[in-house]
């Protein structure tokens, strides 16, 4: 099964590369074909893969951290925090999104950490987090931050176009500039997450049991919170708000391969990447020549699955 | 024969902002001993367990574990000496019994592939808690009693010499209560493991424990052999329940039966 993974990833990337307005034959590449492939399609497919993997992994981390199968960057309002940070960077002309992608990412990171801190504050009670309180806190924080984003849009003036372009999201503007940042950060965050996976496994039994087993729980929780916020903010900076990847991908992987984070993390990363490359391919083709925002595709697929999970959740949703 | 001390607690106090949750508690536990911690809700039992585990630092006093001050242990080294079975956690993820028990091996390595010692230890832990048949089941699909066996197996996989438990018989039917305590008693007798457990049921304490520690409002109300510490008066003082003590079949054991549970 694991041996099939590289082949599947390769096949999905080929599918992503082969889709576009100009038909390209991989067997006979002209100079234009090569330019289109290398400068347009490859950064786009790579970005979609990295963002999909990053969002799925962020979801898996949040779920482990909150010991809850129903959590991801989008539902927890962390994505909204990231977009508020990015919007602030653009409106206050700290960076225009294409000129300084890194600055937008840094602000998005600040926003997502702040959002996560708020959700932590409102949802935590002695003994942990209930799904109920977690989802409501995430919803509240997310709505509040989104209204701040709306105010920023009204204040934006001449930056409004840049802002709207940014929030439409998707991968149509992906270039190597943005791809390098995600290529540097997302796999690194993934490797760190895999390294600390055993500690997160022990934490599934509760903080006290983990501490009594020798896990430094505070440190581990902080590391994973920062990793998930980082993955979310880079994904938002690259592609805007894309929901439900982080919710459904880890859930599916857990159903098939079990809950051990040592296998869950890598499988979730690669599956999330493939999932978003395929969603992006669908977004480009279903209404061609127009493009659907990829977030709409993931929501169309993700929301029914999310509702199904809520309906069938037999565990403690208290 | 020398009596080896597994655990020494020297006049521990603990409190937040002046309010004392524990006052000057001292106790000692030797290898192979089963100690029952008895007291009403809010008497400080769980706080005491957490201090003995090193999860809470005491305001004053000291804990010595296997002859070494607890505060000087590295968390992983400490986990190889003392293990904890908390009240049953709600687990939202589909871990199998074997996966859950293998988490107990974390202090012995944690990263990388399972060693031979890990494999043997996990199998042994499942064997000793009579949970071997459950190995491949999902933890969430088990009954309360089966879950408790598996949680104890996880603590055993830690290969610690001292095991602390917080109400291991909570929500279990009588058959499982007896099974769990018999399994713990066997660990004490056969392997010299020290077990300290919070128990609500004075009869289980009387039947299985070597010594009892009575705790009320953070104060020590008695610590010694069960037959000496637990009588009608001490139980009335401690739990506020009027009970009649009846001599058991073996010498020294006593059954406690509530007198007049309600008046008509």
What does it look like?
The complex is a heterodimer of chains A (318) and B (264). Chain A is mostly helical. Chain A has 13 helices and two strands, in the order H-H-H-H-E-E-H-H-H-H-H-H-H-H-H. Chain A has helices at 4-18, 31-65, 78-91, 101-123, 131-155, 160-168, 176-195, 197-203, 207-212, 217-239, 245-257, 261-285, 294-312; strands at residues 124-125, 128-129. Chain A has a two-stranded antiparallel ribbon with strand order 1-2. In chain A, helix 2 (31-65) packs parallel to helix 7 (176-195) and helix 7 (176-195) packs antiparallel against helix 12 (261-285). The model of chain A has no long low-confidence stretch (mean pLDDT 86). In chain B, helix 4 runs antiparallel to helix 5. The model of chain B has no long low-confidence stretch (mean pLDDT 90). Chain B is of the alpha/beta class and 264 residues long.
What's the topology here?
The complex is a heterodimer of chains A (318) and B (264).
Chain A: H1 4-18, H2 31-65, H3 78-91, H4 101-123, E1 124-125, E2 128-129, H5 131-155, H6 160-168, H7 176-195, H8 197-203, H9 207-212, H10 217-239, H11 245-257, H12 261-285, H13 294-312
Antiparallel strand pairs in A: 1-2
Helix pairs in contact in A: 1-2, 1-12, 2-7, 2-10, 2-11, 2-12, 3-4, 3-5, 3-6, 3-10, 4-5, 4-10, 7-10, 7-12, 11-12, 12-13
Chain B: E1 5-16, E2 19-30, E3 34-38, H1 45-53, E4 60-65, E5 68-69, H2 75-81, E6 82-85, H3 97-102, H4 116-128, H5 144-157, E7 162-165, H6 174-191, E8 194-198, H7 202-208, E9 211-216, E10 219-225, H8 226-229, H9 232-239, E11 243-247, E12 254-258
Parallel strand pairs in B: 3-8, 3-9, 6-7, 7-8
Antiparallel strand pairs in B: 1-2, 1-4, 4-5, 9-10, 11-12
Helix pairs in contact in B: 4-5
């Amino acid at each position: 099964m694991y041996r099939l993974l590289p082949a599947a990833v390769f096949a999905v990337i080929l599918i992503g590369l082969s889709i576009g307005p100009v038909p390209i034959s991989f067997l006979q590449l002209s100079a234009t074909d090569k330019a289109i492939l290398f400068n347009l399609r490859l950064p786009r497919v790579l970005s979609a893969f990295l963002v999909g993997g990053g969002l799925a992994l962020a979801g898996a981390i949040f779920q482990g951290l909150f010991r809850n199968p129903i959590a991801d960057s989008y539902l927890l309002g962390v994505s909204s925090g990231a977009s508020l940070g990015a919007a602030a960077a653009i409106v206050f002309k700290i960076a225009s999104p294409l000129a300084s992608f890194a600055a937008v990412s840094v602000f998005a990171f600040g926003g997502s950490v702040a959002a996560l801190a708020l959700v932590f504050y409102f949802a935590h009670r002695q003994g942990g987090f209930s799904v109920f309180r977690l989802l409501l806190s995430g919803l509240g924080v997310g709505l509040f931050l989104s209204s701040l984003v709306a105010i920023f849009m009204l204040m934006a003036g001449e930056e409004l176009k840049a802002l709207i372009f940014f929030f439409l999201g998707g991968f149509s503007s992906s270039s190597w500039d943005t791809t390098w940042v995600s290529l540097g950060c997302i796999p690194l965050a993934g490797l760190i997450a895999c390294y600390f996976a055993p500690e997160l496994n022990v934490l599934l039994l509760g903080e006290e049991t983990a501490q009594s087993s020798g896990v430094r729980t505070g440190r581990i929780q902080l590391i994973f919170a920062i990793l998930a916020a980082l993955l979310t903010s880079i994904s938002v900076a690259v592609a805007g708000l894309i929901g439900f990847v982080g919710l459904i991908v880890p859930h599916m992987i857990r159903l098939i391969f079990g809950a051990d984070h040592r296998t869950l993390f890598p499988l979730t990363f690669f599956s999330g990447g493939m999932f978003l490359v395929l969603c992006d391919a669908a977004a480009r083709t279903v209404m061609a020549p127009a493009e659907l925002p990829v977030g709409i595709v993931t929501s169309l697929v993700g929301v029914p699955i999310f509702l199904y999970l809520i309906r069938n959740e037999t565990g403690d949703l208290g | 024969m020398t009596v080896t001390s597994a655990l020494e607690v020297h006049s521990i106090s603990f409190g937040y902002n002046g309010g004392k949750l524990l006052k000057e508690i001292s106790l000692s536990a030797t290898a192979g001993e089963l100690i029952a911690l008895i007291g009403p809700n809010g008497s400080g039992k769980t706080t005491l367990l957490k201090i003995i585990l090193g999860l809470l630092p005491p305001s004053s006093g000291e804990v010595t574990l296997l002859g070494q001050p607890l505060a000087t242990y590295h968390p992983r080294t400490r986990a190889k000496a003392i293990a904890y079975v908390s009240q049953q956690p709600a687990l939202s993820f589909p871990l199998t019994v074997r996966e859950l028990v293998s988490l107990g091996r974390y202090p012995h390595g944690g990263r990388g592939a399972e060693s031979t010692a890990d494999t043997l230890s996990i199998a042994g832990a499942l064997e000793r808690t009579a949970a071997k048949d459950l190995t491949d089941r999902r933890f969430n699909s088990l009954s309360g009693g089966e879950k408790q066996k598996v949680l104890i197996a996880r603590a055993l996989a830690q290969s610690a010499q001292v095991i602390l438990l917080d109400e291991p018989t909570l929500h279990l039917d009588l058959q499982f209560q007896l099974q769990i305590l018999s399994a713990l008693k066997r660990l004490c007798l056969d392997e010299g493991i020290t077990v300290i457990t919070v128990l609500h049921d004075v009869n289980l304490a009387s039947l299985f424990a070597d010594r009892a520690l009575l705790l009320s409002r953070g104060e020590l109300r008695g610590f010694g052999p069960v037959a000496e510490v637990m009588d009608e008066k001490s139980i009335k003082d401690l739990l506020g329940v009027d009970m009649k003590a009846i001599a058991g079949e073996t010498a020294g054991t006593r059954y406690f039966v509530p007198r007049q549970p309600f008046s008509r």
